Amino acid sequence: NLPSWVSSPQMIIEPTSPKLLPDPLKEPYYQPPYTLVIELTDVLLHPEWSLVTGWRFKKRPGIDSLFQQLAPHYEIVIFTSETGMTAFPLIDSVDPHGFVSYRLFRDATRYLDGHHVKDISCLNRDPAKVVVVDCKKEAFHLQPFNGLALKKWDGSSDDRPLFDLAAFLKTIAMSGVEDVRTVLENYSLEADPLEAFKRRQTQLEQEEQQRLADLSKNKKQQQLFLGSLASRLWPRSKQQ
After folding, report:
1. Would you tell me how many other CB atoms lie within 10 Å of the CB of residue 219?
2. What is the DSSP letter of 106?
3. Strand 45-50 versus strand 54-59 pairing type
4. Residue 151: DSSP 8-state
5. Contact assessment for residue 53 and residue 59, using Cβ atoms and an 8 Å cutoff
6. What residue numbers bound the domain in which 148 lies?
7. Gap between the Cα atoms of 45 and 94, Å rounded
8. What is the CB neighbour count within 10 angstroms for residue 95?
9. 133 φ, ψ to 5°?
10. What is the 3 state secondary structure string of 7-65?
């Protein structure tokens, strides 16, 4: 007979547990209202290989800022399609201050149609509060409106998307969004959702500036009108 791990395909294609994370923290401990599930490879790190150094992993600009800004609002979970043996020391290197709450690896994914899929129904978290960030849409295709697909990082040093991602996710948190899927669905068809967010943000800022300018203009017109009205109500004496 074949060993049990060979004869049972469920061991390979199903997550190791139907409940990948422990229950949310209860008072007096602090549980952030949202959960960020983020990939490691090509999102936070870029693998590079050379004859001289072999494999090396480059840290993406903005990681420290991302974690620091989001930690008060998001429970940060690195969920990678890499194996634990490969990823564990890499996560240590990108998170020296311990902002990452949990680490999930390839054995926690669901293997479907040749892809390692992150099934958030196994996370033990409210799906209305979970954001999945990956460079592959296939990674979250079971719950497409929980996901945000970034462009794969090519290792360039002048890269900015993690700074934009921090602004985007912080805006969601500060706005108190009840269901993140209502926001992420609006960006699901965008080739570059973060660029789309920045365009909309710029447009809203311009509209707000125009609104304030119109208010200021109307206020000045109102003051001129009131001044004219007062001069008619209390005309100057003939001696003046």
Report:
1. 10
2. G
3. antiparallel
4. P
5. no
6. 34-189
7. 8
8. 17
9. -115, 125
10. HCCHHHHCCCCCCCCCCCCCCCCCCCCEEEEECCECCCEEEEEECCCEEEEEECCCHHH
- Give pLDDT, residue 75: 98
The verdict on 61 and 164 lying in the same domain is yes
Per-residue pLDDT, 232? 54
Residue pair 87/47 in contact (Cβ under 8 Å)? The answer is no
Q: What is the CATH number of the domain that holds 140?
A: 3.40.50.1000
Q: What is the mean pLDDT of the chain?
A: 87
The model's pTM: 0.81
Q: Which pLDDT belongs to residue 144?
A: 95
For residue 225, give both structure tokens.
């009108």
Quick check: 7 pLDDT over 50?
no
**DSSP 3-state helix, strand, coil percentages of the chain (rounded to 5)?**
45, 20, 40
226 pLDDT band, cuts 50/70/90, is: low
pLDDT tens-digit readout, 113-140: 889 999 999 999 999 999 999 999 999 9
Contact 34, 130 (CB under 8 A): yes
**182 domain-assigned:** yes
Residue 39: closest CA among 126, 147, 122, 124? 147
Same domain for 43 and 114, yes or no, is yes
Instruction: For residue 115, tell me if it sits in a domain.
Output: yes
Give the containing element (helix H, strand E) for 90. helix 84-94
Centre a 10 Å sphere on the Cβ of residue 38 and count the other Cβ atoms it contains: 25
Confidence of residue 65 (pLDDT cuts 50, 70, 90): very high
Check: CB of residue 180 under 8 Å from CB of residue 34: yes
